TrEMBL record:
It comes from the Bacteria. This is Tetratricopeptide repeat protein. InterPro entries: TPR-like_helical_dom_sf, TPR_2, TPR_rpt, Ycf3/AcsC/BcsC/TPR_MFPF. The lineage of its organism: Bacteria, Pseudomonadati, Bacteroidota, Saprospiria, Saprospirales. TPR repeats lie at residues 2-35, 70-103, 172-205. Keywords: Membrane, Repeat, TPR repeat, Transmembrane, Transmembrane helix. Gene3D superfamilies: Tetratricopeptide repeat domain. Pfam families: TPR_16, TPR_2, TPR_8. The keyword Repeat applies. PROSITE patterns: TPR.
Length: 417
């Protein structure tokens, strides 16, 4: 017998009317409390609403009634994945593929799990296995392209995206993917066109919106080098990224030691030291400053969120206060203004880093507190001579440590859905 409430709920879920769909699924369960299929659909509704813990709890209850149902295994795999338990997600996928080896959706989910774990080759292999079962699956084609980009196989990625768009020319995600491939190839004008088309098809496509901003900023010569660095780092897994960060710092310390212990060689080391310091600072301050320029762009200004605009305003304000303080120092020779100018300038680092993190996240809250504390210490240290010496030292140490703290917090936060 067809469960009318269940069928109606599935239709409402497809229309993204989550509250109405939830009511229908619960009505279906009121008539059949042990219906694992209805529980699975209600869990899918919870997953769509980002109620991941509830979805997992409901799915576990459903498993007691139908442990070998492929649809329930798929739902459970997704629930474990979104609850950041990739080991259990893989277990559910393995069981599902044992029951139905030709189900492309399981391979797609496996590719997403591997991508999340930064295992690019495994993600590519899973996507290709899925495409052997369903060659027309545009989602599999897209994740195959993304894996190819991470593996630095850009030409193959471009061909893959062309195929996806041939199969689904109105797919917003495929147009956005093509834009990101164009960015990888430094074809920024073409990338902008791709992202604009993706946003025309789906104005809520944040993947395309963020790409559009990067494509516009990439036309700036000074930002372009940093963008290439960001893209290069994004191709590494977390361990290798930390190896690069720590390795660069060790080289900097070695070169600094050479400069201190060998005065004759010191002039040769200064460019390396200056380059490291400039790069370390610019990796945090470039984004809000680039957003300042983006606000002057006829298209780019519409791509910025209110939060990004606030970040660029704060960056502009800190630059202005720094320049005013330094100008006051040169006019009056007041040492406090010199320190104040340096404090405002260096505060661009925590300000830029904080606004590079999404609103509402744990990392954003932690970095906001860190940044405000640094600002208070630095400004008081510059303005109160009796406290200045040790507060300025604390401020300098805080600025130095910011990059390490922020990289850790951002890395942890990036794993959350």
């Amino acid at each position: 017998m067809i469960n009318i409430h269940l069928e109606r709920g599935k239709l409402l879920l497809a229309q993204k009317r989550l509250a109405d769909a939830e009511k229908e699924f619960k009505q279906a369960l009121s008539h059949a409390p042990n219906d694992a299929y209805a529980m699975a659909w209600l869990a899918e509704c919870y997953l769509s609403g980002k109620r991941y813990a509830e979805a997992l709890e409901l799915g576990q209850r459903a498993m007691g009634h139908a442990p070998n149902d492929p649809f329930l295994l798929y739902t459970m795999a997704r629930a474990y994945f979104y609850n950041q338990n990739t080991k259990k997600a893989r277990e559910m996928i393995r069981q599902g593929l044992q029951l139905n080896p030709a189900d492309a959706d399981f391979f797609l989910l496996l590719a997403h799990v591997a991508f999340y774990e930064e295992k690019w080759q495994e993600a590519l292999d899973a996507a290709e296995q899925g495409l052997e079962q369903d060659a027309e699956n545009v989602n599999l084609v897209n994740i195959r392209a993304q894996a190819l980009v991470k593996l630095n196989r850009k030409a193959e990625a471009a061909q893959t995206i062309d195929y996806a768009l041939h199969k689904a020319p109105e797919d917003s995600y495929s147009h956005a993917n093509r834009g990101w491939v164009a960015i990888e190839q430094s074809r920024f004008k073409e990338a902008q066109q791709n992202f604009r088309e993706a946003l025309r098809l789906n104005p809520n496509n944040e993947y395309a919106r963020s790409g559009l901003k990067e494509a516009i900023k990439g036309e700036n010569f000074f930002y372009r080098g940093l963008l290439k660095y960001f893209l290069w780092m994004a191709k590494m897994n977390e361990q290798n990224r930390w190896a690069v960060i720590i390795g660069a710092y060790i080289i900097y310390r070695v070169v600094l030691g050479i400069a201190r212990n060998n005065p004759a060689l010191a002039p040769l080391t200064y460019p390396i030291i200056a380059l490291y310091v400039l790069f370390a600072l610019s990796s945090w301050i470039a984004v809000p400053i680039a957003n300042l320029f983006l606000r002057l762009h006829p298209i780019g200004k519409h791509a910025l969120t209110e939060d990004e605009k606030m970040g660029s305003n704060i960056a502009g304000g800190l630059i202005g206060l720094s320049l005013l303080s330094l100008a006051g120092y040169f006019i009056s020779d007041a040492g406090q203004l010199l320190f104040l100018g340096l404090v405002f300038g260096l505060l661009l680092v925590p300000a830029g880093g904080t606004f590079s993190v999404s609103e509402g996240t744990k990392a954003r809250r932690s970095l906001t507190i860190y940044s405000l504390a640094l600002a208070a210490v630095g400004i008081i240290g510059a303005l109160v001579p009796s406290l200045g010496s040790w507060l300025i030292i604390v401020f300098a140490l805080g600025i130095f440590a910011y990059g390490w703290v922020a990289n850790y917090l951002i890395g942890q936060d990036a794993k959350a859905f």
